[in-house]
Amino acid sequence: MKSTVLSIEDVSATYARAKGGKAYTRSDVTPARVLDGVSFQVAPGELVGLIGPNGAGKSTLLRCVLGLQRLQAGCIQVDGQDLSTFSRRALARAMAYVPQHSGSALALRVIDMVALGRSPHQGLHPATHERAVVFDAIERLQLQPLALRPFGELSGGQRQRVLLARALAQQGRLLLLDEPTSDLDLRHQIAALGAVRQVAHERGTAALIAIHDLALAGRYCDRLVLLHGGRVHAQGPWQLVLTPAHLAQVYGVTARIGTDGGWPYVLTEAAVDGVDHHPATPKQEAERFAHA
Description:
Number of helices: 10
CATH class: Alpha Beta
Radius of gyration: 20 Å
CATH architecture: 3-Layer(aba) Sandwich
Number of strands: 12
Number of domains: 1
Order of helices and strands: EEEHEEHEHHHEHEHEEHHEEH
CATH superfamily: P-loop containing nucleotide triphosphate hydrolases
Structural class: alpha/beta
Strand content: 25-35%
Helix content: 25-40%
Distance between the termini: 50 Å
Largest sheet: 6 strands, mixed
Shape: globular
């Protein structure tokens, strides 16, 4: 039996917002659940794709794993250790994170941005090793022509590749990616996910990737977890998860799933008659309650 890097057991989390969009924590608000009893594991060297419609709880689950969202119930462990027992430095050594958006533009060169990934390991390795790790990450993401460019001058897609290179340079046991290909063109989507898969298989890194593109998820992920309404609707290899029945139930569309060269493709055809194509998620229910 394979060991487990990330263990998510019966995790539930709540969400509520106040008027004006700020977090609402007053006791007279009853927040709705965004995650409800979510359980799955990620093994060393395994890429798990987190899929589902908008508001299904994908980003919230990543925030829970990062320790940024309080759990209402359940437990998250990294290498058998409860997440709540990690110091901030130990957590930075254990996991690397790529957000959905690159955020503010720092006045640093690309090579220096990537080198920030080594900060949690400062003083643990010789300088020659640190440089080699940074250069390797830059090469994997095909950033050599941009290495000396200021980060702030790059396009959104280029910045996303830099953040991914920084995460690879961090060399954590766990890699968390929130829509890492959303700003990338087709060529760099393939290059980025290929680099993540190669690193995971070479180093035994566990990767959890929130991703909307179902074909890319099926091609590059070893296993998929389909979230719907804050719950796990299905999980397993893409052949068991990307089915017409699941896509109709979760996304409200009819779809055909085929293969080309062994990889899946998904053709959506129409909305499913009689299905609420935009059902209220727990997050949306909480927002409506807060504004009522």
